[in-house]
Amino acid sequence: MKVSERGEFGFIDDIKSNTIFNPATIVQGIGDDTAVYRVTEGYDQLITTDMMVNGIHFSEVTTIPFDVGYRLGAANISDIAAMGGEPRQAVIAAAMPVDTEVAYMEAVYDGFKSICQKYNVNIVGGDTVTTTGPLVLNVTLVGEVPKGKAVLRSGAQVGDLVIVTNTIGNAAAGLAVLLAKQKSFDFIKECHQRPEPQVPLGRWLREHKATSLNDISDGLGNELNEIAKASGVTIEIDETKLPLHEELQEAAKILSANSLDWALFGGEDFQLTGTVPAVLADTIEMQPHIHVIGRVVTGPSKVLMHKADGETRLIESKGYDHFKHKS
Ligand SMILES: Nc1ncnc2c1ncn2[C@@H]1O[C@H](COP(=O)(O)OP(=O)(O)OP(=O)(O)O)[C@@H](O)[C@H]1O
Ligand SMILES: Cc1ncc(C[n+]2csc(CCOP(=O)(O)O)c2C)c(N)n1
Ligand SMILES: [Mg+2]
Ligand SMILES: [Mg+2]
Ligand SMILES: [Mg+2]
Asked: PurM-like N-terminal domain spans which residues (predicted)?
């Protein structure tokens, strides 16, 4: 059945069950003019929004509907993780072409509900409209962080260590193998299709006094430049220290692609990058999911990379730019 046959209110009825995963904070969920939720005493409130468009962030070739919903949640939860915060309440809006299948949208919502359940996020409302363009989905997410403890982009200090979580470039590599219709490469494909926001590591980094954090949506180069600019520092990273997964290296060989470009400019990894005080070096050494990739030094706001061959390269802020990208 198409959404047009189901009708606006029928559609809302179809998706409104199984949306509250943290009931203690909810006075009113889906079903009134606004939702009503309770905040935690002693916490600052965080709010963020991110959108996904069919043909830009996903396509039939790259992403099944469940994963469209999962990634939509991941992109938003990731921004809360990048503040060292806890995700809490979400509203979701959908602009649908009239011939969209109800089953497709239900699967999108199943994916979104699945990640919300995993991170204890309540889905407290939304909006439903039709469009003559492609499917557009938007989430606005509220989170919380202990008062005054949000980890900003502007706190990097000279002498700090530069860190990144897990491995980077996988989402771009996964997209490339999906578009090339390559078999296998399941790990990097999943990194593209069903990325995991790094909430526990964001919390760990906040608790260990990280001085700045950013999530990797547009590419490591872009995110580190944002930190360098906001903090007024130079960031130096080491090419040999960038954590790259073996599947990414393998995919680069098969597709004759540049694995370093994926890592620096790929985006959509939703890993965290940022800075921590140098005294944390030994503690980080024992943290298997956080890697030191460089240092903060005095100088103008820029990012430099010491290459494997001994040369130094300026890393431009050339991540994914929606107005400049040609597909
Ligand atoms: N259309 C807009 N109107 C008002 N503020 C905006 C708009 N677009 C972005 N911003 C704000 O600009 C800043 C940077 O936004 P950006 O979307 O680049 O960050 P992000 O959400 O971390 O990255 P990404 O969208 O790539 O995941 C944020 O403070 C964001 O709220
Ligand atoms: C079908 C298809 N083609 C290309 C891409 C690549 N892509 C799209 S948006 C984006 C940056 C993050 O977006 P935002 O800044 O909105 O968070 C990237 C790297 C994709 N995901 N799917
Ligand atoms: Mg954004
Ligand atoms: Mg972000
Ligand atoms: Mg972006």
From this structure: 31-145
